[in-house]
Amino acid sequence: MCVKLTNPHLATDYITPCVGLKSACLKKNIQETIPRFVKGIPSLAVNSTDPLTYDYVNVELPGGLKIEFKDGVLKGLRNCLVNEAKFQNNDADVELTCNVTIKGKYKAQGQILIISINGDGDAKLKITDLNLKIKLKFIDNVRDGVTYYDVKDYKVNYNINGKVQFALTNLFKGNPELGQTVLTFLNENWKLVDAEFGKPLVDIVIGIAFKNVQKFFSNIPKDELVVL
Known about the structure:
This protein is an alpha+beta fold. The protein has one domain (23-224): Bactericidal permeability-increasing protein, domain 1 (Super Roll), CATH 3.15.10.30. It has helices at residues 23-37, 176-188, 190-218, and strands spanning 3-5, 52-61, 65-75, 81-88, 91-112, 115-143, 146-160, 164-168, 225-227. The strands form two sheets. Strands 2, 3, 4, 5, 6, 7 and 8 form a seven-stranded antiparallel β-sheet that branches. A hairpin with a 2-residue loop joins strand 6 and strand 7. The chain is elongated. Keywords: Biological rhythms, Signal.
């Protein structure tokens, strides 16, 4: 998204306008903005998204697999590459390719594919060449007589063109040999794991990250963000 800033004290001072909203300019500006945006903008209540932290996630996945994830940290968004960017009729389309790493404490019980697990330990997931196709829909929102350009809705589809690597300790309590065997199986069959369990977990992380995008627009009056 490219915007013209009329008050740099309320908004950021590093986004430049794109005449006619041409895709090449949008792509360039978004690419230059990402490393700064992910650091966070305290004046706009935008938190850091690299690292992106989340204290606790509790989810039940297909097959009855229950996962608790605590003290989670995601890194890598600052290095995402912008493949494509378009804006038309209040709709934005952005495609990114990212390499991300997620670390935290996990507790899991249930079945992954054909294997039953009962683990409690440290988790690390490394995802390479994660392709994200993002759609944003904007609307005018009047609050207290001031018009804001809010994100009404968003949709993200993803595909992993690289691979997923799992590093999980204590997959089977008291049985490290079996845990290592299962870990090897998961890494060798990561595509099957992703197909069955990936979307719900990715959706959680994306939901946390997009709160910052929504805050960015909802805290700046539209007359201070003149979309060209």
